[in-house]
Amino acid sequence: MSVSKGVWSKFVKRSPTLALRNKALRTALLSPDLPSGPVSLKSKASKRKYQSIEGLDQIYPLAYEVLEKRSEDIYSKIESLDKNSPTYAEQKEELEIAAEKFNPEVVYMAEYMKNSLDRTQPVFRHYLKKTWEGYSKMLLMQRLETLAVIPDTLPTLEPKVEVKLKFPHNNQDRWIEPGTLLSSNVTKMPPSLEVIEFKESTGDLYTVLMVDPDTPDLAQDSYSTTLLWGVKDVKLSNTDSMIDAKKLMQNEDCEFVEYLPPVCEKNTGKHRIAFWVFRQDGPLENAPKGLRREFFKIRQFVEDNKLTPVGAHVIRTLWDRNTENVRKMYGLPEGRVFTRERVPYLKN
Amino acid sequence: MSHFKWGRRCLATNVATPLSNVQTGVILSRVPQVTPEVTDFEQKFYKYQDELERRLMWTFPRWFYFKKGTVAEREFSQAQKYPLPARDGVWFPKGKPEIRHGRDRRFKENIVLPKAEGHEKQGESSATQVENLDDASRPIKPLPRVTEADKTNNQHSLERKLSRTLYLLVRQNNMWKFPAFPVPDDSKPLHTIAEEGLKNLGGEKLNVWTVSHTPTALLKFSNGKLVHDLPQDGIREYLIRSHIIAGEFQLNKIDGCEEYKWLTREEIQQQTDPAYFEKIDCLLSKV
Amino acid sequence: MFGAARTVQKSGANLQFVRTKRIRAGLDPVAQRVVTQLSVISANRKMPKMLKLSKEDFVKHVTVMRAWGVVRKEKKQAEEAQLKQQYESIKEANEDLKHVSQKLFEAANKLEIGKRFPLELRVPTEYPSRSGWFYDYTPRKL
Amino acid sequence: MVFVQLRQFSNSSIAAGRPGYSLVKPVHHRVRIRKQLLSPRFPELKLPPTDVRSPKYRPFLVRQDRVKEHYHNTLKSDLLLINYQHDQKDVEGPKRRKWDMSSPYHINRPLQKPKGQIVPSPTIRARTWKNVPFFEGVSINCFVEEAKANPAAAIAAQLQIQQITNSKVYPIYAKTNVPTWKLRPGMLMGARTRLTGAPAHQFLSTLTELVLPRARDFRGIRNSAGDQYGNIAFGLSAETVRLFPEIEHNQDSWPNTYGFWLTLHTSAQLDYEARTLLSGLGLPFYGNEKVPLLLRQAQGL
């Protein structure tokens, strides 16, 4: 017997992605008790051992009814919104979130199935944003600050999107945490980025810059920034948010500076490799193909193209024994070897 | 200057100015005697929370309450149902018990109180047995929340609808309303006139507590009807809030009062004029 | 009353029996009382196992708590709205009284320091009292 | 004399070997970082205590709270009416004052004390439907003098408070050194706890219905008690404590009981309002009541 008698079990106006696809799970959430035991527990022994709290099966149908009733009220409020109002879209999204926020099926998916959520639904974007703000956003900003990526590359960042990064060096499909030290073997091929928008997005254009601000500049006795990779006009949406090799092969104009792996020279220490993601207002104009990589002025570039950063990522690399192989792969000359300058010992 | 009058003593003037068409009304209420009715949702919620709390409770330290070797300890121990301890070679399909101080720490603890002597057979003869009120250890038998007055729907009784706030309504000049008394001049404050008026109306055996000297609302009447804008000859009625503490209201038919009733908010809605109810609705307790 | 005689070996070969105070097993009663008291306060061996709800039950629990929050919030809002109406009503009555009679107004707005609820106005109980309503009230003669 | 403040590095700190500028590293973003959430350790402790997965979780409402119901159904609207004063305005309490900058030493100097007192007084807001006083909770403080000689007495006091209140009890340690009393810092001296919400209401109804009516030495709370701003304190003797049902029905375990202090916390702005509220919850009062100082000041009395 299903506890749902109203809007949450009807999918005429609501998206079917708001319902759980697993039938056993769905039955468990829509019945007062657990008719076939706890589905989420894997082993038979733990299923047998499990005991729910007494009284939950009594109160749950009533609680469901209260929340479903509230949701119905909100849906009727959406119907009565003024469609010509300038804030219509915002109001609608807000109400749609409120209507579905407490739906147990939605809560289940948002809590335990984070990787397969339908991002076209405002409520899932809402939950994803909360999860992101609770950990990844803070972690990224802490790493950007401690590694001084801000203000060494761009002055600051107000993150709007989540940026995930991975390299296709092996079969393991693992996102890289900001600030990780990677070997040259990992970074030899261009990475895949996922840009997760928390607003409704149907065809926004994005620019990605990959820069190394730690290239030694002997003439100035300082460091300069090198542009390692430049991608522009990539069309992303809530359903398709990946920037990977496949997408770049299809649109060859996107890659205005081809990928060059970070090949650090020996004894130059750890290099920060910053990824900056910008949301564009229109097509990018001041980004000619084959832009000069060395002495890249990222602030100038951002100003010329009127870009605003929405997300970032950072990794670190170091010279290792594989670096020379990567250089050969890309036809680069052998790297310099820096040595410590001996300063004569001075008395006083 | 941010001065405001904190109870400034009013100047004693002996001259009383006569007032015309001013009345003071009384909202006399009987506060709930028993707790409000619990809805089904609330009751089940409390039940669930109680079960959760019992599951998360520490084990009852019986050794503190029952000294070893006493009769009380033996009786208590015999009344308990102890869980089966874990043993080697025995398979427990519901999981291996983890027993500490006689409690399986995976579940809530069930404490059974041993029955007091002399009450063991009370289940059979309780209906016929007369309760011995001097016996302090007698089993607790609560009185019903629904009283005789509820069954007969005696609206003159103060013992009806114990879980609700009751308000005193009188039929004054053919209109059901709160009782009101004329204010002849300004020699006496409003609440005193209200108290004295109630004494005259309801008899001496009335213990009434006036909540405040401040009137809680203003009703404007013209020709026996509630109006929004007061004409020249209209009547002002200031409502004073008070509670009945004890005693009985026995109506003396003065000031045009003919009948009285103790009513809840919903009953007032049915009894009174819609315009009147709309005005006083915010003053009435929903419970 | 006396403890068992214990064998004490003195220097030399001859054995003697000496009476000593009886040594009881366990602590003395005062120390035992403290130990018992500490065992009641302490969580040691009395803590239940940590609550591990399955995913479905966790979601159900969250749903229940949210529904409770929604119901409580509605109740609170209704109460606050009513209280606001009452406040406006008091304000209106006093504003009017101020114009009708300054003297009555001042008497009505006297600061009520020392105002007490009568003790007979008790917190409602779950079941009615055995004595019922107190009808036989007679006011004290002054 | 005109004093011109120049922005420059401090000379004295350079002489002292310290840098003359801020050592705090600037932050280049506006995202608030809660460091404890970034640590991978103890994931359960990062959950709020209201989350059922947290080890700190305790259900907050297990039965109908009749004191709370009584307050909301009866007392609240009565208190609104009792405390109402027409044309009321906020009364500004004396606050810390600014220096007049007649001397260069006034720069960065902590503010002056309020006139005629040492600590500032709060502003008393006009009473509206938004600030009707309510009962916030109760703190219990049990300081046992005999614990100096017999530390076990403090443990017994801890257990006594735990039994009465059904709450987690915290120990009290002596802070000062008083040789004539043989008191040393760090001695275990008693127990304290703080109750809010349903447990506080439960405790209050036990107190007003079972304990205080039978207490011989209790006349009521003195009208002069209170901290001026709505918190009323009073004491219970060791004899009265025996009347708590948890102790009364387990007499054998309690050869000694210990009296304690109770502080009733309310959201009232002044004590006389708190007394009115508490009388509605069944607490008796006695003695003379004075007009609060702040009101006398406001009226110029």
Word description of this protein:
The complex is a heterotetramer of chains A (348), B (287), C (142) and D (301). By secondary structure, chain A is α+β, with helices and mostly antiparallel strands. Chain A has 2 domains: 7-134, Methane Monooxygenase Hydroxylase, Chain G, domain 1; 140-329, Alpha-Beta Complex (Phosphatidylethanolamine-binding Protein), CATH 3.90.280. Helix content of chain A is 31%, strand content 19%. Chain A has 11 helices and 9 strands. Chain A has helices at residues 23-30, 44-49, 56-79, 88-100, 104-112, 122-134, 136-146, 149-152, 245-250, 298-304, 323-329, and strands spanning 162-166, 181-182, 192-196, 204-217, 222-236, 242-243, 255-257, 271-280, 308-317. Chain A has a 6-stranded mixed beta sheet. In chain A, helix 3 (56-79) runs antiparallel to helix 4 and helix 4 crosses helix 6 (122-134). The relative contact order of chain A is 0.11. By secondary structure, chain C is mainly α. Chain C contains 3 helices and 2 strands, in the order E-E-H-H-H. Chain C has a two-stranded antiparallel ribbon. Chain D is of the alpha+beta class. Chain D has a domain at 135-299: Ribosomal protein L5 (50s Ribosomal Protein L5, Chain: A, 2-Layer Sandwich). Chain D is built from 9 helices and 7 strands, in the order αααβαββαββααβαβα. Classes of the chains: A alpha+beta (348), B alpha+beta (287), C mainly alpha (142), D alpha+beta (301). At the B-C interface, helix 1, strand 7 and strand 10 of B face helix 1, helix 2 and helix 3 of C. Chain B: Keywords: Mitochondrion, Ribonucleoprotein, Ribosomal protein, Transit peptide. Chain B: This is Large ribosomal subunit protein mL46. Chain B: Residues 21-150 form the Large ribosomal subunit protein mL46 N-terminal domain. Chain B: Residues 115-156 are annotated as: Disordered.
DSSP summary, beta strand count of chain D = 7
Which geometry of chain D do the CA atoms define?
Answer: globular
Question: What is the CA–CA distance across the termini of chain D?
Answer: 41 Å
| CATH C-level label of one domain in chain D | Alpha Beta
H-E string of chain C: EEHHH
The figure for the number of domains of chain C is: 1
Number of H/I helices of chain C: 3
Which architecture name of one domain in chain D does CATH use? 2-Layer Sandwich
Approximate strand percentage of chain D: 5-15%
From the helix content, strand content and strand pairing of chain C, which structural class follows? Answer: mainly alpha
CATH topology of one domain in chain D: 50s Ribosomal Protein L5, Chain: A
The structure class of chain D reads alpha+beta
Radius of gyration of chain C, in Å, reads: 37 Å
Find the biggest chain interface: B-C, 71 and 58 residues
Low-confidence stretches of chain C: 1-11
**Strand order across the biggest sheet of chain D?**
2-3-1-6-5
Give the averaged pLDDT of chain C, no decimals.
87
Radius of gyration of chain D: 26 Å
- Tell me the β content of chain C: 5-15%
